[in-house]
């Protein structure tokens, strides 16, 4: 009984650096610098260990004598251009999405990632619980993409994508796939998946003997990119945040639809 009670108590505890991150006060790197520099106190005592356990609901954490307060939660939607990395900085000097955000992006983290060659909808926030819910594959939040395939796809290839394909890290879940149109050398598709593996859509096309020529994410759950210009951002509305939370809570698997499905 005592062991069970102790396990339940520890669920409420977080490491000191994570408390800073969740409060939106700074990155974990910043938190480690402040902590190791003796600027942080817990219940009046200096703590130098970033992994020190803290109960955020009961312990008093201060930074340079000032109480740590939760930052206002921010949620923004960015139309990420191709050629930008979804990271804060790049050792090779390549452009990152934070160059497009200015000061507004200072303490925000991406909810999932888009690779260098993929454009489209990217959500950023300082609400870590929200981000974890959206990216947790168990919640099956649908992500919708428009794809220009490098070849003309047969009905059989599309059916294989719908049924799920075998990848190096295991089989994919069934996907909703719609043929938008065929060109002389390409098929244009809309695909909705409920996972978020690394380069998943590209690998799925390769698994059916094709490749992605162009890839744009147009929706996450009920949130759509709409008419937002490439490289621009906007705040998510309260309704959009609420709907995304609800989508994750009910483990929805239905597709999101975008009015600009024929944008190519």
Automatic annotation (TrEMBL):
Keywords: Isomerase, RNA-binding. It holds the Pfam family S4. It comes from the Bacteria. One of its GO terms (cellular component) is cytosol. SUPFAM superfamilies: Alpha-L RNA-binding motif (SSF55174), Pseudouridine synthase (SSF55120). Its EC number is 5.4.99.-. Gene3D superfamilies: Alpha-L RNA-binding motif, Pseudouridine synthase I, catalytic domain, N-terminal subdomain, RNA-binding S4 domain. Residues 245-264 are annotated as: Disordered. Residues 14-76 form the RNA-binding S4 domain. One of its GO terms (molecular function) is RNA binding. GO terms for biological process: enzyme-directed rRNA pseudouridine synthesis. Belongs to the pseudouridine synthase RsuA family. This is Pseudouridine synthase.
């Amino acid at each position: 009984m005592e062991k069970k009670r102790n396990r339940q108590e520890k669920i409420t505890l977080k490491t000191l650096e994570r408390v800073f991150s969740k409060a939106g006060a700074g990155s974990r790197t910043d938190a480690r610098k402040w902590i190791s520099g003796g600027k942080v106190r817990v219940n009046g005592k200096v703590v130098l260990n970033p992994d020190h356990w803290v109960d955020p609901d009961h312990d008093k954490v201060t930074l340079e004598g000032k109480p740590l307060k939760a930052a206002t939660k921010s949620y923004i939607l960015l139309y990420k251009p191709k050629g930008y990395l979804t990271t804060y900085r790049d050792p090779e000097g390549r452009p990152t999405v934070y160059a497009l955000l200015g000061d507004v992006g200072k303490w925000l983290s991406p909810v999932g990632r888009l690779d260098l060659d993929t454009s489209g909808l990217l959500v950023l926030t300082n609400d870590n619980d929200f981000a974890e819910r959206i990216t947790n594959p168990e919640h099956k939040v649908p992500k919708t993409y428009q794809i220009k395939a490098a070849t003309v796809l047969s009905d059989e290839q599309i059916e294989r994508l719908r049924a799920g394909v075998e990848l190096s890290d295991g089989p994919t879940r069934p996907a909703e796939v719609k043929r938008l149109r065929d060109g002389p050398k390409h098929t244009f598709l809309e695909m909705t998946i409920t996972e978020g593996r690394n380069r998943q859509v590209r690998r799925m096309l390769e698994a059916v003997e094709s490749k992605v020529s162009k890839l744009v994410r147009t929706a996450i759950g009920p949130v759509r990119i709409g008419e937002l210009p490439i490289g621009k951002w906007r705040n998510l509305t309260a309704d959009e945040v609420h709907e995304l939370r609800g989508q994750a809570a009910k483990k929805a698997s239905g597709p999101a639809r975008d009015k600009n499905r024929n944008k190519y």
